[in-house]
Design a protein that fits this description.
1492 residues; alpha+beta; 4-stranded antiparallel sheet; 15% strand
Length: 1492
């Protein structure tokens, strides 16, 4: 197939550049920037490294293969570094005569500007920072002026820590004599009175092998030469005495060395350059390159070295001048090395270790600069000279082009990115002794146009040169000349030429290998730039089409990571060329998945920039290989992918944690062998631990993996349902196997049941459905226990059951008799009691989730609950004389509590999802021996889950209120769930059912049963154990359709043989078998649920990765819209701040607008920047208004339960648009987006919904739910009718601290202090106000209490202009000012409304507050509004407005959760406020600001 492709595309692919070739050059994405630099100050870290098992290079260039993926000969990995500084500041060595003036800077520190010990510490610190700029993954240890004993101790310690990895040994000997000709370097004695020689033989013994050595001193060549002499001697001795080195240990001659000068040379002392010029070139090349350029070139406009040091930009950002120079420098030095050194040397030095690659790339600059000062740096292995390479002229041109724009950049730039201070490896902003300004640019004058930096044409010109090279293309052989490889020994030292092409039939001696294109490394760098990407890919496709030798070249240069990343690009224009390139690569090296498994397994994060994301991509690829492909699972397991994923489940990068969990999920999906291996490693316990992860995606991935472990299907086939639990687990006892499955589901349930992420709750249901599938008997027992206990509570006096005699307490009797069956074995009794308790806990959580506020969660939970309830109605429990399953339920007289239910189950529940399931009738779908009473019970509601809602909450939930004609907002389109009925056939007419119904039950079943409840419990549980035994027996055989399936035509593939698919166990023995459920009679096998989370996660790799997203793409509609919003918001802030300074002295009675809503406008919120007003009425309707146009924008239903109200309404994320945040009295928090139709973002969507308060206390007059949102930190405080105030983290969607209010009164208001403060205020219905501090211990969270209010505190607000002060208002009409720094007494009190206060608020930006009077039976025609200044005694405005009521209201308060019938709220920024009246009118009033 590949041969046909080669012949088809021999003329070269004809790709046409499309949209990808155009666009802004500055469109870098975060992903692209990750490729640029692996650290904050790495000037040359764009090198790509790829790993793999094999690979060869072109046979024309070398007779032996050079690995492009695997380990090159002598490959080193650096683990630790010793930075030895022998400076002895203020004391010159005896053999060095310094010029005057001379170079003095060491690591950019002038040691003579501070005390010597301070200077030494500063130099050591700066040196460490400079090396950290090359690689942050390595531990660097500065060793300052050491004695011989200290040096030995440090070196031996580093070797012990590094084991078989390499050590970097840096030696700066500027303060000691030159190294001796016999190979000795110098340090000090402990009193610094003598120079002590240290032989390199000793150093080699301390550090061992391998190592990387940097010699920065005069006569450094002595050290390099003698090191090799001693290393050869040591290696020879080991070979003679021990027969060679042990595995994992490399010869000493494999060490790398960089020396500053030859043996007979002295370091340059030019005062314009640093004294450690060699170190500066290696660790801060851009700084030195710019200084060197300005010293040797005259530029216009008097550009000085100080100006050059202020070049704007960031080395990590290619859009900035400094970043572009760094990018060009990386490309040029890579290309110089590629075109000058042999392939094996290039791979060894530039493609194996990040630190080594950076040092040797920057060494090329050191050679260029220092040779001009009669100093020749040396390396081992020796490298050809590069200081006269033609590309250095290209570098000078790029620097010249950039610096000529420097004056305009410094004085006219306004680009924030360009103003970013340099974060290069020199750390200029942190250098001691230098005055470096952080702001590298001046703000332009208002009428002056900002200067636009003109990017370099370097990369565009290099692409043109590459295109010219390809146009001269053809075979890998050519005639000898400029386009051919140089003769052996010319540039490719030690690399012989070979004039034969393996594919040529005729050998012509006059043909020689063609010289590779010089621009190949630059083309790889161009792939990071979106404007040039398509053109570069087209040229690469034309290049690899030249033959396998060209493919080997691009693989050797390191194209694999680049081209792997581009696989994620969604652009249609890139796909043809990418497919073409990948076809050529796979034709040469088809071992694809092994490469990804090797990258995932590597321990060296320096091999690739942004290695975590690369490993996440590898996990994704391997997960895709394993999905629906058992051979792929086995292959990955063989390559230790499972172990590598397990080891990375706790990595810092969330994407890597997510995809390693998903890869585990796909590997052990339906694979018993891998599940057994995973259990032996404790993988399921690790996954349960990471359910506490901060990332919701990681928590979902762990749940998904637990789901496939428990039997859920991870297949892409929607008809493949799954089942079979955790498999055979032959290594475990069956009882341990049982406990393990229960423990997994229980641990997941307890960790996730209160999670704020609906996505996590949906995945939890998949795990629970697996347990229900395999252990359905236990769940039927729990459902019966719950039903009977709830029936006792309902039938008892006042809703509380008081048993008249013990025989009526059938549940306790049944459990007691069941436990008595275990005899005197207390451990066994306790174990079974705990197991049943675990099942009951999960069942109760299922009931909670069946009425979850998020519709998809509720729908999935209803599927599971209905399945259990259908089994219960089929069970022998219905034939017990003492059972109440055939008795219609009754409502309790007291609904304030429920038996054995926590507050989480006693709270009011929201209505069921808008799309209700069709009514199902037991008699219409199947025949049974169930009595007609139970049938009537089931007919009452639309599903068994709705029946359970009645049980769980004590109230019957009505159908949707059709009279309101309001459609609820659609749920988000992620995983739209569908309810699955437990009955296999759709409803049919009664006569049709009669024709096909089975014969009626025999008299045996109609006679009174002779069994007790405990017998049913034992039979159901034994049946579950039989199902487990059958699963364990069948686990070693492939899954197949069983012969019993002809009884169950509705069952799908992938299920285990009977009795796993039927609770009527064919393998059971004993009389108890007849008590089996017999689910094959008509109960649909609807479980386990099937998750689509994996497919959703895969969408990440379908989204744009190599370019900026639409909102971040300059010039796009969304980008321009956000820029406009930002500028508009800033303008509003400026204007309103100027108004706020005078508003506290003006009248506030200017009418602005009047709106009208249906119902009572009890809760309102203004948008800070958009002219939007959100209004919630006394029930569940929300209206969105454009108050400036008096136009209603939207009208939708919140979805809270009937009888509850929306008690809190806020708008979050207002800078970028806004999301409506609501809190209702049912304890549920809901978030809605797309409420503004003008933005054309689609219909209103409920982004999320969760229970903000799990323990809602029912009371006659409550406050519902009170919210406080802090935008700066993303924290949400939730209080209300509860004894706790709960903190939620919006970033992680997890609960934080619980603040015990220590009060029996509901919380009426919460307000957080602005800024970074950790304090907040909460007011209570009994008049108390408490100050909480989140930094305190649990017992000391309440730091201050205030008691002067004698009635319900309606609101509490921080003072807008005085810090540490706040205001509060109570229903008796008093407003009080407090100071938290003083005693708990008021500073000032305003008695505004003697007849009572309705609403109170303060303006966040100016010193005014407002309050409205209460509507009472004696004062109901109008309300008095008072706007008061903090500083003036008379009110700023006081006026009456009509309530619109025509008679004294019969119902004083429209909502039992809000003690007011009107509302008042200030605008967050503008000088406006809104007043909501009982007649539905909303009056927006403003401040009469007198124009100045």
């Amino acid at each position: 197939m590949f041969a046909q492709q080669n012949s088809t595309f021999r003329p070269g692919p004809r790709f046409t550049p499309g949209g990808g070739a155009s666009g802004s050059r500055g469109s870098d994405t975060d992903t692209e920037r990750d490729y640029r630099s692996a650290s904050r100050s790495e000037p040359s870290s764009n090198t790509r490294r790829s790993r793999g098992p094999n690979g060869t290079t072109s046979p024309e260039e070398t007779p032996y293969p050079v690995p492009w993926r695997g380990s090159a000969p002598g490959k080193l990995k650096t683990a630790n570094a010793a930075l030895v500084l022998c400076l002895n500041i203020d004391v010159d060595p005896p053999d060095i005569i310094k010029t005057n003036p001379c170079a003095v800077l060491e690591c950019w520190v002038d040691p003579h500007t501070m005390p010597s010990h301070k200077a030494l510490e500063a130099i050591g610190s700066n040196l460490q920072h400079q090396f950290e700029g090359l690689s942050l993954k390595i531990s660097y240890k500065p060793i300052l002026d050491p004695s011989q004993e200290d040096l030995k101790r440090f070196c031996t310690t580093l070797r012990n820590q590094s084991k078989d990895d390499a050590i970097l040994f840096y030696y700066n000997g500027h303060g000691v004599p030159k190294p001796t000709a016999s190979g000795e370097l110098w340090c000090f004695n402990r009193t610094y009175t003598q120079y002590i020689p240290v032989s390199l033989q000793e150093v080699q013994g301390w550090l061992g092998s391998p190592g990387v050595y940097i010699w920065d001193c005069s006569a450094a060549g002595h050290l390099l030469q003698n090191f090799n002499t001693f290393a050869e001697r040591r290696d020879h001795e080991i070979n003679m005495m021990q027969g060679g080195y042990l595995d994992g240990t490399q010869p000493m001659m494999n060490s790398l060395q960089l020396a500053a000068c030859a043996a007979n040379e002295q370091l340059p002392s030019c005062p314009e350059l640093p004294a450690d010029i060699f170190t500066s070139c290696l660790t801060s090349p851009i700084d030195i390159a710019l200084r060197y350029f300005i010293m040797n070139h005259q530029l216009p406009n008097n550009i000085t070295a100080d100006m050059v040091m202020q070049l704007p930009g960031d080395l990590k950002d290619r859009r900035t001048p400094l970043g572009e120079l760094n990018w060009i420098f990386t490309a040029i030095t890579d290309t110089i090395a590629w075109t000058t050194f042999s392939r094996d040397i290039f791979t060894r030095l530039y493609r194996c270790d990040l630190l080594i690659a950076s040092l040797f790339r920057n060494f090329l600059l050191a050679e260029r600069i220092m040779k001009n000062y009669h100093c020749t740096p040396h390396t081992y292995p020796p490298l050809p000279p590069t200081n006269t390479h033609p590309l250095w002229a290209t570098w000078d041109l790029a620097v010249d082009t950039c610096l000529r724009q420097l004056p305009e950049l410094l004085y006219k730039t306004s680009d924030p990115a360009a103003n970013t201070p340099s974060s290069n490896s020199g750390n200029l902003s942190n250098r001691t002794g230098q005055n470096h300004k952080q702001d590298r640019g001046n703000t332009p004058k208002p009428n002056e146009k900002p200067y636009a930096y003109v990017p370099s044409r370097f990369f565009a010109d290099q692409l043109t040169a590459f295109e010219v090279w390809i146009s001269r293309g053809g075979s890998a052989l050519t005639k000898r000349g400029p386009m051919s490889l140089p003769p052996a020994g010319d540039r490719y030292s030690g690399e012989p030429t070979n004039g034969r092409h393996e594919d040529d039939g005729v050998q012509e001696p006059h043909l020689v290998p063609r010289k590779p294109p010089d621009q190949l490394p630059i083309v790889l760098q161009v792939l990071l730039s979106q404007p040039h990407r398509l053109r570069a890919l087209i040229l690469l496709s034309q290049f690899v089409d030249l033959g396998p030798w060209a493919v080997h070249l691009v693989l050797t240069i390191g194209i694999f990571p680049y081209i792997s990343k581009l696989l994620l690009a969604p652009g249609q224009d890139l796909r043809p060329v990418l497919i073409f390139i990948w076809a050529r690569i796979l034709a040469v090296d088809p071992s694809g998945y092994r490469y990804f498994s090797n990258v995932l397994g590597t321990r060296d994060d320096d091999l690739l920039p942004n290695s975590s994301e690369h490993k996440a991509m590898c996990s994704f690829i391997l997960a895709a290989v394993s999905r629906d492909f058992p051979h792929g699972q086995t292959a990955c397991w063989t390559e230790r992918v499972f172990d590598n994923c397990y080891d990375r489940l706790e990595e810092p990068d969330f994407l890597l944690r997510q995809w390693t969990a998903l890869c585990i999920a796909q590997m052990w999906d339906s694979n018993d062998t891998i599940k057994v291996y995973g259990v032996d490693r404790g993988t399921q316990d690790m996954l349960i631990r990471i359910l506490l992860d901060d990332s919701a995606e990681v928590r979902c991935a762990a749940l998904y993996a637990l789901g496939t472990f428990m039997g859920a299907s991870g297949s892409s086939d929607p008809d493949k349902q799954g089942g079979g639990g955790s498999g055979s687990m032959h290594q475990l006892d069956e009882r341990d196997h049982f406990r393990m499955e229960v423990a997994v589901a229980t641990g997941a349930t307890l960790a996730i049941k209160d999670d704020a992420s609906p996505m996590c709750r949906k995945e939890l249901l998949v795990v629970i459905s697996c347990l229900v599938k395999e252990w359905r008997g236990y769940f039927v027992v729990c459902a019966w226990l719950y039903w009977e206990e709830d029936r006792k509570w309902r039938s008892g006096s006042g809703g509380h059951y008081h048993p008249q005699n013990l025989e009526e307490d059938i549940t306790n009797h049944a459990i007691g008799e069941w436990l008595d069956g275990f005899g005197d074995d207390e451990l066994l009794r306790e174990e079974n009691r705990v197991l049943l308790s675990s099942f009951f806990t999960i069942f109760v959580v299922l009931l909670d989730l069946s009425v979850d506020p998020y519709h998809e969660v509720a729908t999935n939970a209803q599927t599971i609950v209905d399945y259990i309830m259908a089994l219960l109605l089929e069970s022998p429990y219905t034939r017990l004389e003492s059972s109440s399953l055939d008795i219609p339920p009754t409502l309790p007289t007291d609904r304030k509590a429920s038996p054995q239910m926590s507050g989480a189950r006693s709270r009011l529940r929201p209505a069921s999802p808008g799309a209700l399931r069709p009514n199902i009738s037991r008699s219409e779908t199947m025949t049974s021996s169930i009595s007609s009473g139970v049938t009537n019970t089931i007919r009452r509601t639309s599903s068994f889950a709705n029946a359970l809602k009645t049980l769980a909450n004590g109230i019957a939930f009505p159908l949707p209120r059709m009279a309101e004609h309001v459609s609820r907002p659609p749920s988000p389109n992620l995983n739209v769930a569908q309810y699955t009925s437990p009955y296999s056939r759709p409803p049919t007419p009664q006569n049709a059912m009669r024709a096909t119904a089975p014969p009626p039950p025999t008299n045996e079943y109609q006679s009174p049963p002779d069994f007790l409840p405990r017998h049913v419990m034992e039979a159901l549980m034994e049946e579950d154990m039989e199902r487990l035994r059958a699963r364990r027996r069948a686990g070693i055989h492939p899954r197949r359709q069983h012969h019993h399936h002809h009884h169950h035509p509705h069952l799908t593939g992938g299920s285990l043989p009977s009795p796993s698919n039927s609770t009527f166990s064919m393998d059971s023995t004993g009389s108890s078998v007849i008590l089996g459920l017999g689910t094959g009679a008509g109960i649909r096998d609807a479980l386990p649920l099937k998750s689509t989370f994996f497919d959703w996660c895969c969408e990440y790799f379908k989204e744009p990765q190599m370019r900026q997203t639409e909102p971040d793409e300059p010039g796009s509609v969304q980008y321009n819209y956000q820029v406009w919003r930002q500028q508009r918001n800033e303008q509003i802030n400026v204007e309103t701040q100027s108004q706020a300074r005078v508003a506290a002295e003006c009248r506030w009675d200017r009418p602005v607008a009047t709106l009208h809503v249906s119902g009572y406008p009890l809760t309102m919120a203004f948008h800070s920047y958009d002219q939007h007003l959100m209004v919630a009425n006394e029930s569940d309707m929300i209206t969105v208004w454009d108050w400036s146009q008096r136009k209603r924008l939207n009208y939708f239903c919140n979805g809270n339960a009937r009888g509850t109200s929306i008690t809190s309404l806020q708008i979050i994320n207002q800078d970028v648009g806004g999301i409506i945040l609501t809190g209702a009295a049912d304890g549920v928090i809901r978030l809605f987006r797309n409420y503004d139709p003008c933005t054309d973002q689609g219909p209103v969507q409920m982004v999320s919904a969760f229970r903000g308060l799990n323990e809602v206390v029912q009371m006659k007059q409550g406050s519902g739910v009170v919210l406080d949102w802090k935008q700066s930190s993303g924290d949400l405080l939730v209080g209300g009718d509860s004894r706790v105030i709960k903190l939620w983290d919006a970033q992680t969607e997890t609960p934080g601290q619980d603040f015990d209010t220590k009060s029996d009164s509901p919380v009426t208001a919460i307000t957080s202090e602005q800024g970074s403060s950790q304090t907040f205020l909460a007011s209570f219905a009994d008049g108390e106000i408490k100050l909480f501090d989140r930094r305190m211990g649990e017992a000391d969270l309440t730091v201050r209490s205030y008691f002067e209010h004698s009635s319900w505190v309606q609101n509490v607000r921080w003072h807008p202009t005085m810090s540490n002060s706040f205001l509060s208002a109570s229903l008796d009409g008093e407003v009080k000012l407090w100071d938290i720094r003083g005693p708990p007494t008021t500073l000032k009190t305003w008695a505004l409304h003697s007849g009572g206060l309705s609403a109170f608020d303060t303006h966040p930006g100016t010193g005014v507050f407002a309050a409205s009077s209460a509507i009472t039976p004696t004062n109901w025609r109008s309300q008095r509004i008072i706007v008061q200044s903090f500083d003036q005694i008379p009110p700023l405005s006081a006026f009456n407005i009509s309530t619109g009521l025509t008679m004294n209201p019969v119902r004083t308060l429209p909502s039992p959760f809000l003690p007011r019938s009107s509302s008042l709220v200030f605008h967050p920024t503008e000088m406006l406020y809104g007043i909501g009246e009982p007649d539905g009118n909303i009056r927006i009033m403003g401040c009469k600001i007198t124009p100045s």
